[in-house]
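hey so i finaly got around to running the thing on 18230_t:CDS:1 from Funneliformis geosporum. pasting the sequence first so u can double check i didnt mess up the copy paste, my clipboard has been acting weird all day
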Amino acid sequence: MPPLVLYKIPFIGHTFSYLFDCKEFLKQCRKEYGDIFSLYIWGQVKTFVGKEHAHEVLARDDAFDFGIVAVRKLPIDAMFVNGFGDSRYNIMAVKEYISKKLELYTERMQESLHLSIQRYIGKCEEPKVHDHLYKFLSKVIAAPIANIFIGESEEIITTFAEFTSSLFIFYAIPPVLDFVYPGLQDYVNRIPVRLGLYDPSARQRSMLIKHIKNQVDKRLREKQEYQDSWKRPNDLLQDFIEEKLFDPNKPNYNAIADKMAFFIFASIHTTSRASTYVLIDLASRPEYIQELYEEQLEIHKETDKNGILPIEAFNKMNKLDSFVKESLRLNENIAGLSHLTLKDYTFSNGLQIPKDHIF
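ok and heres what it spat out for the 3d tokens, dont ask me to read them lol
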């Protein structure tokens, strides 16, 4: 078992140090106890895995699961009952419906992102002020995401952008009730949702279902009408429609919306958050701007007549890639990707983690 860091305050454990000085506290723990250690936080013992062994966690989805912990933290099982929390299905869908089609989507995403930037940022001939960078970037990023998921429209782009922000109120609630019993806070958070008293995503989900219904009905109708001459839409929604369990005579719009919700949440939140960190780091380090700009000018020479870069060109952005990686490495959310062990696991250094352990 990983060593448990010593603490002085019974019942509270390391909670205050983790809450108010997380970065320096974890750095000191790693220095004294090694790359893998355990802390007593919010009434539970949680294990932390450092950079030397983190790749083992990320590479072994048969032993570690991120989705289960996310479902516990957010009451998405109460809000989305038809598939949002099915981690095995989500992994399959990412591989088959998105990863294998990246080359197909690259041109569309570039075009959509360019239009989105022009719309929300423009030429910036005059200074512009955005009070909340994360929410602003969510709007910019929502357009290309919507393009490959379901198709663009003003209504659906707004729905995509607002969807992730609406759920994060639950992350803002400190799990103080877990001191009484582990998991009690998550249970209490679900009560108003299950009783129908409060659902922060209700409006966005309603809009998503409405748009999905219109699109599904339109596609089924046109496919029947045009037969072989029908042009198949290349997006995530069409992949959902063509699954074996889909019934064209009785479409389950709610189920499709719930599955779509996971991908909206995962893609827009992670991309917007990462972009926020990178832009703030770039603004605070102006000495790198010119060098990165010159690299972009050089890469831009490979664009075609429509201004589209081939997918191979992205691999040549070495300086930008290094800057982004370093920004993400240094960001404050260094312990936010919790996993649950699906089975007993032994790390390469010999330390063992038991089944059903959160870290």
